[in-house]
């Protein structure tokens, strides 16, 4: 029962790679956006807020199709990237990472934004009176104090990325070894007559990954809290 | 030398303050809501005046007619708040070292020892702010401001959140600071006794107006904040 076949390993490995890359690339952008939304007033802020949350409320197949139109080989951005930088997203694992990153983005931003809002601005002022320029205030005070939220956002984003299905399959299809993640592999297997036991193996694996992510995030959050309150 | 001539529209009144102080400790005296903290925040660069000028030792920090406003972090003005505002994720040693790091000053262990001795906080260095008493926290905040090598130190009711006994514990340190640290200070309080003990010059604020300014002797024994 638990002989995981090479094809299944490939899907597991690919899922982990896609979700990890998506999370790591989306996190700095997510921190920047969260900081803007939490700490700045600017023209178009409501629009930015709406755009960030859009993937959460749009049908994933719509997001995937929009990605295909934009980042596909003949898409506006996709054609330029392919011609000038040789970067291709369509039907590649990098495209899966892009789709997962965008779908995970709202879940990643939200806890980070909340935790930045919770940082006492008086501490940031104190840092400035001690000579810290705004970006150093951010790096030495705001970000360390918001760390539990950043970790929570990363775990949520990672979990979303690993389970993403609709946008990914629409944008990069379901090619074994290139874009077939655990979710799309399970989808294929349950449509195959003898696929049940393989599908169940992958289901168990995805439960294990999700559990591990949750336990890890709890552990990080507890450590971070201890560090902050320091008692 | 500190020169301030500013006005600023606040919630219920307009703050108007004009004084030049050569004193070691300039006291800002007045009831709560008189505009003392706003005035200190203008000097620190936290608030921008609507009109006016702020100078220290000939250097202009604010001059509204020239649209000049030096940002807080480049003023080299230390600020001790009523609530110590220590960084909770750093221990006492790192809190004390913060200003030196941000100003890219060379490490100066002699100076560090002088300040920790002056404030008796040497035994607290490895603790976290969460493990300090209110008085200890305020002493560490004083040390942190001093070690950032400010050219002026602002103290906004640094004893305000402490009970009488703790105040008695901190006051002697402030007197020592005045006499030994050699940094001019602006001391905000609504407590006449503190003023008499510490200030060399006093500005009295009432609802945003400066109603008196002069040597500490102008402070009559019975003057109450109004």
User: Mind summarizing the main beta sheet of chain A?
Assistant: none
Order of helices and strands of chain A: HHHHHHHHHHH
Biggest interface pair, residues each? A-B, 24 and 29 residues
Principal-axes geometry of chain B comes out as globular
Q: What CATH first level of chain A would be assigned?
A: Mainly Alpha
Q: Globular, elongated, flat, extended or rod-shaped: what is the shape of chain A?
A: globular
Q: What proportion of the residues of chain B is helical, as a percent range? A: 25-40%
Find the structural class of chain A using helix and strand composition: mainly alpha
CATH architecture of chain B: 3-Layer(aba) Sandwich
Assembly state (oligomeric) = heterodimer
What are the secondary-structure elements of chain B, in order, as H or E? EEEHEEEEHHHEHEHEE
Which CATH class of chain B applies here? Answer: Alpha Beta
Structure explained in plain terms:
- The complex is a heterodimer of chains A (about 230) and B (about 230).
- Chain A is built from eleven helices and no strands.
- Chain A has about 230 residues and is mainly α.
- Chain A has a single domain (about 5-230), classed as MetI-like fold.
- Chain A is globular.
- The model of chain A has no long low-confidence stretch (mean pLDDT about 90).
- Chain B has one domain: P-loop containing nucleotide triphosphate hydrolases (Rossmann fold, 3-Layer(aba) Sandwich).
- Chain B has helices at about 35-45, 90-100, 110-120, 135-145, 165-180, 190-200; strands spanning about 1-10, 15-20, 25-30, 50-55, 60-65, 70, 75-80, 150-155, 185-190, 200-205, 210-215.
- In chain B, strand 8, helix 5 (about 165-180) and strand 9 form a beta-alpha-beta unit.
- In chain B, helix 3 (about 110-120) runs antiparallel to helix 4 (about 135-145).
- Chain B is globular and about 45 Å long.
- In chain B, about 40% of the residues are buried.
- The interface of A and B includes residues 129, 134, 136, 137 and 145 of A.
């Amino acid at each position: 029962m638990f002989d995981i076949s090479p094809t299944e390993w490939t899907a597991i490995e690919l899922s982990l790679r896609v979700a990890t890359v998506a999370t790591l690339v989306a996190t700095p952008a997510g921190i920047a956006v969260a900081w803007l939304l939490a700490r700045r007033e600017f023209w178009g802020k409501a629009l930015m807020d709406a755009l960030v949350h859009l993937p959460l409320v749009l049908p994933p197949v719509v997001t995937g199709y929009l990605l295909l139109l934009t980042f596909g080989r003949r898409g506006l951005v996709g054609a330029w990237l392919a011609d000038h930088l040789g970067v291709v997203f369509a039907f590649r694992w990098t495209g899966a990472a892009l789709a997962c990153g965008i779908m995970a983005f709202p879940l990643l931003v939200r806890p980070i934004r909340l935790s930045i809002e919770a940082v006492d601005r008086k501490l940031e002022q104190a840092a400035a009176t001690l000579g810290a320029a705004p970006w150093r205030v951010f790096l030495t005070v705001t970000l360390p104090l918001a760390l539990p939220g950043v970790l929570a956002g990363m775990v949520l984003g990672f979990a979303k990325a690993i389970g993403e299905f609709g946008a990914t399959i629409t944008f990069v299809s379901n090619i074994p070894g290139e874009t077939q993640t655990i979710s799309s592999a399970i989808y294929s297997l349950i449509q195959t007559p003898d696929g049940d036991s393989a599908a169940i193996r992958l289901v168990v694996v995805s439960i294990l990954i999700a559990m591990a992510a949750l336990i890890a995030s709890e552990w990080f959050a507890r450590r971070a809290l201890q560090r902050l309150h320091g008692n | 030398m500190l020169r301030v001539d500013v006005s600023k529209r606040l919630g219920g009144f307009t703050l108007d303050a004009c004084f030049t102080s050569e004193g070691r400790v300039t006291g800002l005296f007045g009831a709560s809501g008189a505009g003392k903290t706003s005035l200190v925040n203008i000097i620190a660069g936290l608030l921008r005046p609507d009109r006016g000028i702020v100078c220290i030792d000939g250097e202009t920090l604010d001059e509204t007619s020239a649209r000049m406003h030096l940002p807080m972090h480049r003023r080299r003005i230390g600020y001790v708040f009523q609530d110590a505002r220590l960084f909770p994720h750093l221990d006492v040693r790192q809190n004390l070292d913060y200003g030196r790091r941000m100003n890219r000053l060379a490490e100066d262990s002699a100076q560090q020892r002088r300040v920790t001795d002056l404030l008796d906080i040497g035994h607290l260095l490895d603790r976290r702010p969460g493990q300090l008493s209110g008085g200890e926290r305020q002493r560490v905040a004083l040390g942190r401001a001093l070690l950032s090598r400010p050219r002026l130190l602002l103290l906004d009711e640094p004893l305000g959140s402490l009970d009488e006994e703790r105040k008695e514990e901190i006051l002697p340190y402030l007197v020592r600071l005045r006499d030994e640290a050699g940094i001019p200070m602006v001391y905000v309080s609504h407590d006449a006794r503190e003023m008499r003990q510490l200030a060399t010059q006093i500005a009295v604020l009432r609802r945003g107006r400066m109603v008196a300014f002069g040597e500490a002797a102008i402070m009559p024994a019975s003057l109450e904040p109004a």
